[in-house]
Amino acid sequence: MHSLSAIDEFDIRAAFEVLDDGVQGRISLEDLRTLYIGLGFEPMRMTLEELGGKLVANLVDVEKNGVSIDTALLVLSR
């Protein structure tokens, strides 16, 4: 697992807040992919299934309830 710099974490949190338009503290898997690609993480052509495979949570729960900022930070630090 890679550690995120403070700048990386700040950028992720800022982008997460923009995508969390309902201010529920969660974003969809599609929004997580947008965040992943928008911040320049590699590979740029990651599918939703591949990104879902990086999640430690139950994928059905993620699709139903969304991704929290803590989960997003964990996934993007890998």
Structure description:
InterPro entries: EF-hand-dom_pair (IPR011992), EF_hand_dom (IPR002048). Residues 7-42 form the EF-hand domain. It comes from Phaeodactylum tricornutum. By secondary structure, this protein is mainly alpha-helical. The chain has one domain (6-76): Recoverin, domain 1 (Orthogonal Bundle), CATH 1.10.238. 58% of the residues lie in helices and 5% in strands. The protein contains five helices and two strands, in the order αβαααβα. The protein has helices spanning 6-19, 29-38, 48-53, 59-65, 69-76, and strands at residues 26-27, 67-68. It has a two-stranded antiparallel sheet with strand order 1-2. The radius of gyration is 11 Å and the shape is globular.
Question: What labels would you give this structure?
Answer:
78 residues; mainly alpha; Recoverin, domain 1; two-stranded antiparallel sheet; 5 helices; 2 strands; EF_hand_dom; calcium ion binding; EF-hand domain-containing protein; EF-hand-dom_pair
Write the layout of secondary structure elements.
Blueprint: H1 6-19, E1 26-27, H2 29-38, H3 48-53, H4 59-65, E2 67-68, H5 69-76
Antiparallel strand pairs: 1-2
